[in-house]
């Protein structure tokens, strides 16, 4: 298989890093993250490229993807693994937390998919995998804002998948159950689940979708569930 070019947003830790780790063995991988030191460390560990990007800033998203194309050519696939955790009762969340969660999980997702689809439309092919959450299908108490922002991404991806009209451009999503990653730790929240999937287990499903060829089965809009025993 000839090396392809993949972008992994949120590739500095957790699920995104495991996705990048698998892909980097045989392909060109560019990880994106919003903390320079984390991008540098992950880039060195994985032996791939990495760029700093705040997904809530449309101009940064545009410029980073343009730079990927300049360095490596067309983008074969994009894994959107980054998200901001926003757990707790809505009435107890600070307005700044509410705003930032919407900026990252809603605006960031829209900006990233907008720019990726522009390029994939131009080149005529490409795979997009959005990491949603099983909580968008099964409500859980204590995460109303997080669930709402991730539900935006699910709705957007499902509509985009229907709109492509070509198997050469696939827009897919994966709905994992709880995973113990740095998502909660970065905002000072505890991970409370005792039954959960490991990022490396879920990563294999993301990579499987990312590696689908332009002529593989029509799976745009496919929803892959990776749940634990409670769901």
UniProtKB/TrEMBL annotation:
Coiled-coil regions listed in the entry: none
Domain Ketoreductase: 4-175
SMART domains recorded: PKS_KR (SM00822)
Pfam families associated with the record: adh_short
NADP found in the keyword field: yes
Record family assignment: Belongs to the short-chain dehydrogenases/reductases (SDR) family.
Name the record gives this protein: Ketoreductase domain-containing protein
Organism the protein comes from: Plantactinospora mayteni
């Amino acid at each position: 298989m000839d090396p392809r070019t993949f972008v992994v947003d949120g590739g500095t830790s957790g699920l995104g890093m495991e996705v990048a780790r698998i892909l980097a063995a045989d392909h060109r991988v560019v990880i994106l993250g919003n903390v320079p030191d984390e991008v540098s460390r992950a880039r060195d560990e994985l032996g791939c490229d990495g760029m700093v990007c705040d997904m809530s800033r449309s101009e940064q998203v545009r410029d980073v993807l343009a730079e990927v194309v300049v360095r490596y050519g067309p983008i074969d696939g994009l894994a959107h693994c980054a998200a901001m955790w926003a757990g707790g009762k809505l009435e107890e969340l600070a307005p700044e937390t509410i705003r930032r969660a919407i900026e990252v999980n809603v605006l960031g997702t829209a900006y990233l998919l907008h720019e990726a689809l522009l390029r994939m439309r131009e080149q005529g092919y490409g795979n997009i995998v959005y990491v949603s959450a099983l909580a968008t299908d099964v409500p859980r108490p204590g995460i109303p804002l997080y669930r709402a922002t991730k539900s935006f991404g699910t709705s957007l991806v499902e509509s985009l998948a229907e709109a492509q009209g070509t198997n050469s451009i696939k827009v897919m999503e994966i709905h994992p159950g709880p995973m113990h990653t740095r998502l909660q730790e970065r905002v000072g929240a505890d991970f409370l689940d005792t039954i959960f999937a490991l990022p490396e287990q879920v990563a294999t499903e993301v990579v499987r979708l990312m590696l689908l060829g332009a002529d593989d089965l029509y799976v745009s809009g496919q929803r892959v569930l990776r749940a634990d025993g409670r769901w």
